[in-house]
Write the structure tokens for this entry.
Amino acid sequence: MRHVVVVSDMKTGRDGDFLITHALGSCLGLAIYDPVAKVGGLLHAMLPLSKINKDKAKANPHMFVDTGVPVLFKTLYDMGAVKKRLIVKAAGCGNPLGKNEMFKIGERNHTLLKKLLWKNNVLLTAEDVGGTKSRTVRFDVSTGQVIISSAGEESEL
């Protein structure tokens, strides 16, 4: 089954599912896969810190990196994933407006992700982050394959 992950959303799947998210600019796209349990998930988080709006974070934790990432991990653990087997890949976290982007949302999203993973002893397997390009992420939960599309080009992450 194909599931589209919109901005501030998260979807999980099992063997046979296909997850996709579009238009990752400064947002974080995080794909996590357990090859033994054949479960995976994809998060499209917009902003780094939930403290800017606790009500929105409570209503939709997927909007923020600091709340969305833990929810994705917990959901996958509940589906049978095991921490030591996880393959974790990140995309996005760019500066679509160029180096003059005042708030540096993409950079802050990436920094916070790395801090969260480090604190929880999880390694980032691969990443395609930064720059000014928009990315689409396609994640095949059957195989764990993550394909990044940008400006008419595709590459495996």
Remarks:
- The mean pLDDT is 95.
- The chain has one domain: 2-156.
- DSSP finds three helices and ten strands in the chain.
